[in-house]
Amino acid sequence: TPSDSPLEDSDPKDSFLIPRHIMAEPDYLDDDNPELIRPQKLVNPVKTSRNHQDLHRELLMNQKRGLAPQNKPELQKVMEKRKRDQVIKQKEEEAQKKKSDLEIELLKRQQKLEQLELEKQKLQEEQENAPEFVKVKGNLRRTGQEVAHAQES
């Protein structure tokens, strides 16, 4: 066809704008010979590595979220981290202030139980560390009180 060949164009100025077929068409595009070995793309070991795929996926996700890696000065990074920490701390404080009456009552009870448990532990430690005669005296008192109660009733 006349439009395919740039040499048949009548205007020589337009001839350089039309791409010429510099390379010959490869033989394997013709399906007439099934014995020919078709070339395959080589496998890139970097792109097939799991580490590279994970990093690429993470970069894509960050780009979608608008968290592209930026080269910020260290001072700016530190200041932003402090600001984030401060905002998080404020939110936690607000959450504690907004605790319901039930939560407050549960916390009070929990503190009381912990305090009673600590007192029991202290008494137990004192009894374990007490000399033998003090322990015997306590046992005698208890048995004496039990005998008195039994006689009264």
Automatic annotation (TrEMBL):
The keyword Coiled coil applies. Residues 74-100 have a biased composition (Basic and acidic residues). It comes from the Eukaryota. Keywords: Coiled coil. InterPro entries: FAM107 (IPR009533). Residues 66-100, 124-153 are annotated as: Disordered. Transmembrane segments: none annotated. Pfam families: DUF1151. PANTHER family: DOWN REGULATED IN RENAL CARCINOMA 1/TU3A, PROTEIN FAM107B. This is Family with sequence similarity 107 member B. It comes from Chinchilla lanigera (Long-tailed chinchilla). The lineage of its organism: Eukaryota, Metazoa, Chordata, Craniata, Vertebrata. The gene is Fam107b.
